[in-house]
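Hi everyone, sorry if this is the wrong subforum. Our group has a chain we'd like a structural model of before ordering constructs, and none of us has done structure prediction before. Sequence below.
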Amino acid sequence: MKCKLKYRKHISEESSNATRAVPFGILMSIGSCWFFGFIIMIVLAATINPDLESITGSKFGQPMAQIYYDAIGKNGTMGLMTLVFIVQFLMGVSIIVAASRQTWAFSRDGALPFSTFFRPISQRFGYVPLRAIWGCAFLAAVLGLLTLIAPAAALALFSLAVAGNNLAWGIPIFARVVWGQRKFVPGPFYTGDRFSVPIAWVAIVFLVFGILLSMFPVGGPDPTSESMNYTVVINFSVWGGALAYYYIDARKWFKGPKITIADEDLTEEQQIAIREEGLEVKPVEKVEVSPDKQA
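Answer:
Right subforum, don't worry. Here is the predicted structure as C-alpha cells:
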C-alpha cells in the first residue's frame, strides 16, 4: 500500500489537473489496498497451518512460502513465489523512480550535497535525470549490503523505510499547522478550515506512533545483540547527519525550495507572510541539459 501511495504522490508534477487528480488517486490507492489486502488476510487465515511454530520456523526461511507450500504444494508455491519476486522487483523499480525524482528536485533547488552534479538532464536517454537515477541505485545497493551482515541489520533496514517515510510525511504537515497557516493555499481538494487542522493533528500523532513502533525490538523487552532493533541507530544517524549538514553549512546559503506560484495567485496576507521570511516569488531557474557526450 505504501508503494502505491508513494507512486501516486510522486507523479503529481507530471499529472494533468494534479491538484484534484492526485488526492483522489491517493484515496483510491489506499482504499483498493485495504480492500484487496483484507481479502488476502481472509484467505491466509483460512489456509494457514494452526501450528504457528512450523510457519515461523519454516525450513524455507520465509513464513509466506511455507503457507503457500502447505496449501497448494510445491508447484503452486514456486508459481506464487515467482510472482512475488516479480512484484517485489517492480516495487523496487518504482521506488528508484520516486527516489530519483526527489533527488533531482532537491538538486534543482540546490538542497543536496553535489547538487550541481546531480542536477543535469540527459539528452541521450530521453531527457531524464540519469545521474540522479544512478546515484539512487548505487546508494540503494550499498544499503542493501547491510542485509548480508545479520538478520538484525536486515530488520533495521526494513524498519528504516517506515520511520523515514513517516518523518518525511509528518514534517510538512506539522510545519503547515504550526508555522504555515497564513501561507497555506487551499487547492480544489480541501476538507475546509473546520476539519483540515484536526485531520492534520490526527495524522501527526499517528505518524509519530508509527515511528516509535518501528523502533521497538521485535522480540520484546530485554533484547540481545541479535534481537535488538537497530532502526533507532540508523535513523538518528541519518537525521543527525542531515541536521548537522544544515546547521554547519547549508543554512548559510539555502533559502528553501523555489516558489513557483505567481504573485497574483496569492492573497495579500500570504504575500506579506512570504516576504517576512525573506523569500522571493520567482520562476525556477532553467534546468541544465547535458549534451549527449556527457550523458
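For your construct planning: The two ends are 35 Å apart (CA to CA). Strands lie at 121-122, 289-290.
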